[in-house]
Design brief:
Distance between the termini: 62 Å
Order of helices and strands: HEHEHEHEEHEHHEHHEHHHHHH
Number of helices: 15
Strand order of the largest sheet: 3-2-1-4-7-6-8-5
Low-confidence stretches: none
CATH superfamily: Spore Coat Polysaccharide Biosynthesis Protein SpsA, Chain A
Mean pLDDT: 85
Radius of gyration: 23 Å
Strand content: 5-15%
Largest sheet: 8 strands, mixed
Length: 443
């Protein structure tokens, strides 16, 4: 009996220690998140206001911009995207759009055909060109590199000696109108800057999401708030550390859309990474390892969010499996010291996404142990307030349409955070069962 009681007391002690550690983790992470929200919101507000004050005095067009749009089975949305990109506040003769498609896309009417027909019907505005990737493998990065080869060819033929900026947008991207003008202004102010990442929201289909008035809408709000909580502050911190000549304790990543690179910088890191499907994450790592700062851009690239719960789980599985795919592309023999840090860092981030519900449950139990029923209630209220603060930052620093689209999701964002872990668990399970985890999510 004494041995059993001893084992039971040890187990109770271990559980109590785990609960306290989880509570400290949740409270510490929340405090850091609040600090990050304030910092990113202040930066975004000041950067937008500062640009508005100077843009009237300057005519944009210093850089020549190529906008790359990788597309696979995007017939339903691509025409709207092309029309939107052509309306950006930038001289039409100083940028062009390259739609990068895969030659193996089949069907009665391919994305390439839709784009070519649109360009013929609408000849005015920035030029639109289709670039086709051909080869045995299908991967977004291969399409992007095919488009990059076209850019290099055009530079040699007619744009030699000019500052060339290469941007990437998704087929559902809706960037704010001043984006290119802001980038042009930054290149004048900071000639050494060579990599940029826009802030991101997921409310381009806000009306459809608002009609759902539920988890789907809350998820889109959370994804935009997460940009303020984590991604923008990380870019700002890394930019400042690189400027000060200090090493990075962690590498930032790019989002895969709303990202821009000086052509020479892109060539210096070998183009778009071919070693996996998540090229945005990897190119961010490659730039950081080369000591190149990624400057955040305070104008949003708004994208769509799933409008069904099944589609939402698939999207989260798609995103999370992109993280896991790193380990299918790297082997111990190919790991260099400067590759280990990005892999370990991203593994920790991915693990947090997967384990968040369990950690919060332990933290709630620890709060109950310390303060009775009031503890978990207070902790839950803190989480609601924390995510509402992130949503409020999104409302105050984004265009009016985005701000309006966030309001009807109040009170549901923490549930969306928990729901997101289902996609992570699904990705892990499918990989363990050796099933496909990185299929394209259809719109």
């Amino acid at each position: 009996m004494s041995r059993a009681r001893g084992r039971g007391s040890r187990a109770t002690g271990v559980l109590a220690l785990a609960e306290r550690a989880a509570l400290v983790t949740v409270l510490g992470g929340t405090a850091a998140g609040v600090r990050n929200i304030v910092r990113s919101a202040r930066w975004k507000h000041q950067a937008r206001r500062g640009f508005a004050a100077v843009r009237a005095d300057r005519e944009p067009g210093t850089a020549y911009v190529f906008l790359l749009v990788p597309a696979l089975r995007e017939q339903r949305v691509i025409e709207g995207t092309l029309a939107h990109l052509r309306k950006l506040d930038y001289p039409a003769d100083r940028f062009e759009i390259l739609v990068a498609v895969d030659g193996k896309e089949n069907g009665e009417r391919s994305t390439a055909q839709v784009v070519e027909e649109y360009a013929k019907r609408h000849p005015d505005g920035a030029p639109i060109t289709v670039v086709t990737h051909t080869g045995p493998e299908q991967r977004r990065s291969l399409q992007l590199n095919a488009a990059l080869g076209h850019v290099q060819e055009q530079v040699r033929e007619r744009l030699a000696g000019q500052r060339i900026l290469v941007g990437v947008y998704d087929a559902d991207s809706r960037p704010e109108a001043p984006t290119l003008a802001y980038l042009d202004d930054q290149l004048r102010r900071r000639p050494q800057a060579s990599a940029f990442q826009q802030t991101v929201t997921y409310l381009a289909n806000g009306e459809a999401l608002a009609r759902s008035r539920g988890l789907l809408h809350a998820n889109a709000v959370y994804q935009g708030a997460w940009n303020h909580i984590f991604e923008v502050p990380r870019l700002l911190a890394c930019r400042d550390r690189i400027a000060a000549g200090r090493s990075l304790p962690f590498p930032p990543y790019c989002m895969g859309h709303g990202e821009f690179f000086d052509l020479r910088t892109l060539e210096a890191v070998g183009g778009f990474p071919r070693t996996g499907p998540c090229d945005g994450i990897q190119i961010g790592f490659a730039l950081s390892r080369a000591g190149i700062a990624i400057h955040p851009v305070p104008f949003d690239d708004a994208c769509q969010s799933p409008t069904s719960h099944t589609g939402l789980i698939r999207q989260h599985t798609f995103w999370y499996s992109g993280n896991l795919q790193f380990f299918r592309w790297y082997r111990p023999s190919s790991l260099a010291p400067d590759t280990v840090l990005p892999l370990l860092t991203h593994t920790a981030l991915a693990g947090r996404w997967l384990c968040r519900p369990a950690v919060f449950a332990l933290a709630a139990a620890g709060a109950h142990r310390m303060a009775g029923w009031r503890g978990p209630v207070a902790l839950t209220g803190l989480m609601y307030g924390y995510y509402e603060l992130g949503a409020q930052a999104l409302r105050l620093t984004s265009p009016p349409a985005t701000g309006a689209a966030t309001r009807s999701a109040r009170g549901l964002v923490p549930l969306a955070v928990a729901f997101k872990s289902l996609g992570a668990g699904n990705a892990v399970a499918r990989m363990l069962l050796r099933k496909s985890t990185f299929n394209k999510v259809e719109r």
